[in-house]
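Fold these two proteins, one after the other.
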Amino acid sequence: MSTILRPVEQRRTRVAEDPSDSFCLPAWAYTDDSLFAREKQEIFFKSWIYAGSIHDLKKPGDYLTAQLFNESVIIIRGRDGELHGFYNVCQHRAHQLLAGRGHVSAIVCPYHAWSYTTEGSLRAAPGCEHLKNFSKSDIHLKAIRVEVFAGHFVFFNLDPEAETLRSQAGDLAAALEANIPGFAELRPVSAVNDSLFMGTIAANWKVVIDNFLECNHCATAHPAFCDLLDMGRYRTSAHGLWSSQEGTLRSVDNNAYTLPANVANKAARFYWLWPGMTFNLLPGDPAVLLVLQWLPDGISRTSTASQFFGPEGSQCDAARMHYLNSVLGPEDSGLCESVQRGLTSRGYTDGRIVYDANGAQQSEVGVHAFHRRVLTSLGL
């Protein structure tokens, strides 16, 4: 007989304030449709979501589009020199206006040719010249919040009352600037295989984030990763809206990918930003930052998109790409999908958080902080 769950508001978890005395989120938090519907409204529609690179929006008329569930948005450089964000929907008959990224002199609807300025004002509405009580000045694309983070990364937020990302995670911007080699000069770059991690993982989005936020599983599930890095010096920590994992190269001769003896970038840095954005650096030259975003594509599916940043004209080398694309990525996807299957079992309720006050490899302090934020955001 199936278990009948109480309404979300009446459910209790054993996620405690003290990570050394806390359980994880319970299984129902990853499998219940009503909770997922609430997450859309209270987390994703109120959070800063990555849209793309500021370097793709240099000139007036440069634009990119982004998707969050059923909502498509436009971010465009206006003729006034400012970035503007809009819902990607015509105010006449709701046709989508733009796709992908590119350059336009005006935003023209492909359905009935209504056109808008790069600042969102209605410029032309064919056939409406003699309508009663109709004024172009009354019609404007619906605006959304847009912010450039750490000088490179464009985010949007559908909540008009949201605090700025800088006010919530300015310390993450400072950490990126301090710890990513050549950060100020980073530009979008190509990789040997630009399709890295594109697609879906058959797991709830929180399972995917849980897995990213701890390296307690690394010794058993990522042997090559543990051969690449000095795990005795690996540290994890939580910082409000973001978490970090930091390590350093163990040996240029390892089972992940071979590096030259004089490699300059020996650092490994993994930063997570609420709710599903990550910044990733592996040892190797040139220092290439992999930006990954995970977003739900249903209650038990997570979409993954990636972008690379590095010195202008550089490329992520074949050895690192092969390890990411053919070893580390599939290992993590397999782990997440197995966990999702286990969460539907009647043999599991919740588990303990593993905590180390010094932030050692086994510490799950990032997972604990994430779980606390999920519950706070949902009012649970």
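Now the second one:
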Amino acid sequence: MRVLVINNNTEFIEQIKGVLKGLDYEIISFKEVKFENIIDFTHIILTGGPERLDFDLFKEEVKIIKEADKPVLGICFGHQLILKVFGARLVKIDSKERRGFFDVVVKKDSIFSGLKEKISVFESHSYVMEGFGEELMVLAESDAGKEAIKHKSKNLYGVQFHPEAGRDGKKIIENFLKL
């Protein structure tokens, strides 16, 4: 297994390194990633990023989302980027930011294997995505909306929260790496 982490300027890069400790992984800035360079990796993680990123700066990640034939996990902004590719629109939440631990109800899926139906996850975002095509299915929800998605025919996942920053979330990354 070899994991590519595409860093979209997340504040949680050290936590991601901690979850991946002992594994073969490489971290590349979103500014440096090229689709043709993903061939040597078995799994791809698209990290979160700062508020108000310009989606047009992420053309290579969009190509990965559309064309990669390997498991891809989008975290926070990475999740939003996946949803954007499938037609969702970005919506600012009412409060300044949703930050902290929140309960999320999950559906049965291999990515949530070994977890209870209700998990506690760390969130840090000011936007949510609404309305997306029929190629994606919702895997988790909270009082704030849709928290996790999966493509119906590919190993393409997105989570609005930061699994790298919480106990239940680390299990999600471990499960993703088993795909």
